[in-house]
Design a protein that fits this description.
mainly alpha, membrane, ABC transporter involved in vitamin B12 uptake, BtuC, transmembrane helix, 277 residues
């Protein structure tokens, strides 16, 4: 096993995939704590389906760099969800559900009407559940993912107190002068960025698990916001590394393996939390 891992690590694309996967897992865990506490975790699922629809558009238009299309559309959708979330006619959860189902259907329809290859089913399956595309990352894509991930982490660290206030009590944060709408907009934008980055890792249908599982695992054992955030990041990065290594050794899909490890970790943390009382 050690020889096999050592051999694989000599290939640049494997090292690229490991770096990107770790950074995405770290960012997803930080964001997941906020979304779970704000009871808005379903936005990840909705935006991931929107990203799938945007990917279909980029594929049909034969864009070499698909992120040019996917990232703006996903960010714009996140902003629209935030702005119209409290609309009296269409509530936030209904908006997310409509966008989720509509974008998924629209994307699949486009990929069937204008197939980019002879294996449409394979393309759709790999997009929804992740594939070995993570192992074909170029150095430029790694740099983009790395820079965006670092920006997310830096923003979270420097704005920690404001994010904490907005997460737990928007009314109090607004009363003391915090621009709640600006920080909600920032959270929505960061969510969209992470969704786009995570598509190659776990696929559109499994992104929510990468965001939610580490946060719920940490909350099963710990209570304070800071402790939960730190432990969630540790769990997420550890599960990503284990899942990645297992997928190399056993030849399993990267995304599905990582999510399975996250699920097992949640069960373990839940049992430990019950024992602790």
């Amino acid at each position: 096993m050690l020889e096999k891992l050592t051999l694989y690590m000599t290939f640049p694309y494997v090292r690229y995939a490991l770096i990107v996967g770790t950074l995405i897992a770290l960012c997803s865990s930080l964001l997941g704590v906020i979304l779970v506490l704000k009871r808005f975790s379903y936005i990840g699922d909705g935006l991931s389906h929107v990203a799938f629809g945007a990917l279909a558009i980029a594929t049909v238009l034969n864009f070499t760099n698909r992120m040019i299309i996917i990232l703006p559309i996903t960010v714009l959708t996140a902003i629209l969800i935030l702005k119209n979330g409290n609309n009296s006619k269409v509530k936030g959860d209904a908006v997310i559900a409509m966008l989720s189902v509509g974008a998924l259907a629209f994307g699949y329809l486009l990929m069937n009407l204008f197939p980019a290859s002879g294996n449409v089913s394979g393309d759709v399956c790999s997009t929804l559940f992740g594939s070995t595309s993570l192992l074909t990352l170029t150095s430029s894509e790694v740099w983009v993912s790395g820079i965006l991930s670092i920006l997310v982490v830096v923003a979270f660290i420097f704005l920690y107190n404001r994010i904490f206030a907005v997460t737990f009590d928007e009314d109090f944060a607004r009363a003391v002068g915090t621009k709640v709408s600006v920080y909600n907009l920032l959270i929505a934008t960061i969510t969209a960025v992470i969704i786009v980055l995570a598509m190659n890792l776990v696929g559109s249908l499994l992104i929510s698990a990468l965001i939610i599982f580490p946060a719920l695992s940490a909350m099963s054992i710990l209570k304070s916001f800071k402790a939960v955030t730190i432990f969630s990041a540790i769990i997420s990065v550890t599960c990503a590394l284990i899942g990645f290594l297992v997928s190399i050794l056993q030849g399993t899909p990267v995304g599905s393996t990582i999510v399975a490890v996250d699920a097992i970790m949640f069960i373990i943390c839940y049992i430990v939390g019950k024992i602790k009382g």
